[in-house]
Structures are given as C-alpha cells and as structure tokens.
Amino acid sequence: MRNPRTPAERDGRRNHYDVTGRVRISHPHEVRDAVCTLLHARWPALDLKPLRHAFSTFARLYAGQLPGYQGCDTWYHDAQHSLDCALAMARLLDGHERSVPAGQRLGPRRALLGIVMALFHDAGYIRRRGDRAGNGAEFTLTHVRRSGEFLRDYLPRVGLRADISCARQLVHFTGYEIALEQIRVRNERDRTLGFLLGTADVLAQTADRCYLEKCRDFLYREFALCGLAGQPRSGAPTPIYASAEDLLNRTATFNRQLWAERLDGHFRGVHRYLDVHFGGSNPYRAAIDVHLNRIEALVQSGRLDELRRRPVAINRERLRRILATPKRRARTMRIAA
Questions:
Q1: Cα 100-47-199 angle, rounded to 5 deg
Q2: Residue 10 domain-assigned?
Q3: What span, in angstroms and rounded, lies between the C-alpha atoms of 48 and 46?
Q4: Is residue 18 part of a domain?
Q5: How many domains are there within the chain?
Q6: Is residue 208 part of a domain?
C-alpha cells in the first residue's frame, strides 16, 4: 500500500519548532533561554536582565495581559513568528560577530537592541485599547510605524532610551512603509543591524515548517482584512491577490524576487553569517528552497490540494494557555541554539 504522506510531511520537524527542530518557538521562555545562551556565550559580561524583561513583556503583550493592549488576534503574524524572528536574529548576530574584524563588530548593546527590535517588530499588529479596528490585520499597511511607537515607549525600560530614534528607523527594514534607501541610520553599524533584522524577519517567515499552508490559510486572510486581497472595497487599497490560490500561485516568484532585491541585494547577503553560526550550511535556506521547489511543482501540476499541513496560530488565547502551563525546570545554558 502506498504511503500517502509526501516527503515534506515525513521530514520529522514539528510545526511549533524552529528550523533545527530543537527550540519550541511557540513558547516564549524556551526561545528566551536559547537566545540568552547565545548572547551569554558571545558576551559573557552582558547583563541578561533587560533581555529577560523584554521576553516577559512580549509574552504579556501578545497574551493580552499588558495594560493598554488587547493581545494578538492575527494568524500569520502571531507570537510564534516574532519569537522565531528573535531566535534567527540572535543566530545572525552570533555569526556576524564571529566573521568580521573587531572594528566592525556590533557589540553587546546593539545585540540587545537587535533582539528587542526582533521581538517587537510586529507589535504594531496588536490592537491598543480604544482602537476601532476589529482585528490587528487591519493595521497591515501601518503596522511598522506602530511598532516603532511601541519601541519608543518600551526601550527606556531596558536601558535603551538613547536608541529610540535609531530603532524607529531600523524597524522599517522589516516592512514596506518606507523605501529602504530612505531609512535614516546613524552609521554603518546601525545599517548592518537593520539588514540583520530585515533578514531575520524574512527567514523566520519563509523557513517556517508550515509556510505554504500559512500563506493559504493565514496570510491571505490578513490581506483580505486590510484590503490587499479579495474584492475591491471603497476606501481600501487595490487588491493584489484575487484568492488564496492566486497568492500561492505567485509565492515562488515573490520569494525569488525578495531574495534578489532584498536579502542578496539591499541587505548585502548578511544571511551568509548563518553559515558561520551553524558551522556549515544554512538550514533556513535549505528549508526555504524545499518550500519554493515544492510550491513551484504543485502549481505547475495543479496539485495545490497536497498542501495538507494544518498550522495553528499562537495568538492571544493559545499563548495564555502556554503561559499558564507549569514550566519544566529551566534549561538556560543547556539549549542547543
């Protein structure tokens, strides 16, 4: 009898784990421990209390337990994505610092800033108390600016008040609200930090085990709410995608253009620092190549129904359940990141 599962479905990786299969990226405390392990190994004197504060604040924000905010109600841009982005950012920072001469290293303060920005780069999707939007996805076209506003208010709490202006600019390397060449930076080190941030965002999204299914089930849904997909609406932007199938049909082309123009173009190929971090090939790129080759084959053969994974968004309700679960004994300094 033929095994009905495809090779992609037999890869052994679980949906809520990172690209290595070792870090559960749906759980803030597990990502925190992995990131703290990396930063402590690179900068032993770095005070990790601000980083732990940032992860705690992130969990409360996304769970709807931070005063003034309603929690995460989006599906594609959920808590798991931002945690995955923070982990990818830590790995990129590690690879960068191990690759460049001492005079080009970013140092511990920028590393801390980079992780905090990665955690909160999508905070603009979180509805504030009093927002009239019915879902955070309605802020798609302005969420980066809103994320910058969150960082403006939060950075002083972790000793980064002097970096507010810088962070509000650098977070735009994750979006499309400002042209990349118009983003203002203080110096080349800050620019590099922005390139790492923008790269971490893309890699975390597109290397996700359920990336293709999330495009179909989650991203299209968010685009429809903000007017970028579905039927034209008065006062809304011109839709880009007519259907979820249309989005899937164009996913490979979009990604290859993204790599050419952003990751290998404007961001100067900083993804290569992951080769150094992992001591060999980059597992993010390998996972992305599998996704793109697979979607191209399925589109060409008309077999999109073979995308059978069922992703689960780590939004407000699910995150609350995760946070309420008794934690196992801390594994800080022992997680393989």
A1: 40
A2: no
A3: 6
A4: no
A5: 1
A6: yes
Confidence of residue 1 (pLDDT cuts 50, 70, 90): very low
Query: Is the full-model pTM beyond 0.90?
Result: yes
Model pLDDT for residues 84-141, shown as the tens digit of each residue: 999 999 999 999 999 999 999 999 999 999 999 999 999 999 999 999 999 999 999 9
Which alpha helices (H) appear in the chain, and where do they start and end? Answer: 28-42, 49-62, 79-99, 107-120, 143-154, 164-170, 188-207, 211-214, 220-226, 244-249, 251-258, 273-278, 283-301, 316-324
Closest CA to 135 of 211, 25, 33, 221: 221
Does 110 reside within a domain?
yes
Q: Provide the pLDDT confidence category of residue 235 given band limits of 50, 70 and 90.
A: confident
List phi, psi (to 5°) of 2.
-70, 135
- Any idea how long the chain is? 337
Instruction: Output phi, psi for 229, to 5 deg.
Output: -145, 160
Q: What is the CATH number of the domain that holds 223?
A: 1.10.1300
Q: How confident is the model at residue 147 (pLDDT cuts 50, 70, 90)?
A: very high
Listed in sequence order, the residues at least 6 apart from 78 whose beta carbon sits closer than 8 Å to its beta carbon are 62, 72, 313, 314, 315
Q: Is the dihedral of CA 154, 204, 215, 268 positive or negative?
A: positive
Domain residues for the domain of 130 are: 24-324
